[in-house]
Design goal:
Length: about 280
């Protein structure tokens, strides 16, 4: 059954419930149960499809969107979604901004951030600051980790076996192929060329994507710098500077040399993020 689109909400949500979803028959023939609604918000089709598949495999109802404005519209639904799986660099409104939106509204919606660019050499540590989200998952781990992470946040309906603990060796051949495709797709995103935008606009968009990952994995350093006396007048911490250099390296691999050398797009994107956080 395909993921639901936002237009389906009017028929599905009922006032007074929390995290309402599709009503489904029990596998054992007992009373019908309501599957919690999980919104999957990713603008990369391959990532979105993989996340929807993982969500539905755990028995949740899935609604797929590809823009931040669509997520905001869903947050106004009654009841609001039980969970949101969102790309940190989602178009329209980044995952971090949507975390702020959920907190400001006092909603019970749980959030799993999706790291948008996977590189084997970048940021090899766990995030220390999720910016209000409950958990995170890297793109290539969506097939084997997402369902279990959601189950810890929102109890799934008793329609399917509980998600198994992460064990890469236990992945089926299809799941391993899906994970590898996501790994390749994430790296390809760094080299993607959108013919519908000029070179500078593409460069700015790519810098925002790369910085979205940087601030996820460097959250402690970013937070310490923002909180320090003097704030933006203070130099960046050494580790954050190293991460910034890594982000610039990834950026330079993906854009023409004359564009990459014309200005510091990555630093500008980082400063834009910091301004947005106040």
């Amino acid at each position: 059954m395909p993921a639901r689109r936002p237009d389906d909400l009017r028929d599905r949500h009922r006032p007074g419930a929390v995290g309402g979803g599709a009503v489904r028959p029990r596998a054992d023939g007992g009373d019908r149960v309501t599957a919690p609604c999980v919104v999957v918000a990713c603008d990369e089709p391959a990532v979105r499809d993989a996340a929807v598949a993982a969500v539905r495999s755990a028995g949740y109802d899935a609604i797929a969107v590809d823009h931040g404005d669509a997520v905001v519209a869903l947050l106004d639904s009654q009841p609001p979604p039980a969970a949101l799986v969102v790309d940190v660099a989602l178009r329209g409104r980044a995952g971090y901004e949507l975390c702020d939106e959920i907190a400001a509204r006092g909603l019970p919606t749980r959030v799993v951030l999706v790291a948008s660019v996977y590189s084997k050499t970048a940021y090899k540590r766990k995030p220390a600051d999720l910016y209000g989200a409950d958990d995170y998952v890297e793109q290539h781990h969506i097939p084997d980790l997402l369902a279990a992470k959601l189950a810890r946040l929102v109890p799934p309906p008793r329609l399917v076996p509980p998600p198994r603990p992460h064990d890469p060796a236990a992945l089926s051949p299809a799941e391993r192929r899906a994970a590898e495709r996501l790994r390749e797709r994430a790296d390809e995103r760094l080299r993607a060329d959108d013919a519908g935008r000029d070179a500078q606009e593409r460069a700015r968009a790519l810098a925002r994507v790369i910085v979205a990952d940087l601030v996820l994995y460097s959250g402690r350093d970013v937070g310490a710098w923002r909180a320090a006396r003097g704030g933006r007048d203070r130099p960046l911490p050494d580790r954050l500077l190293r991460d910034l250099d890594e982000a610039r390296r990834l950026f330079a691999l993906a854009v023409p040399r004359d564009v990459a050398g014309s200005r510091d797009y990555v630093l500008e994107a980082l400063m834009e993020f910091l301004r947005s956080r106040g």
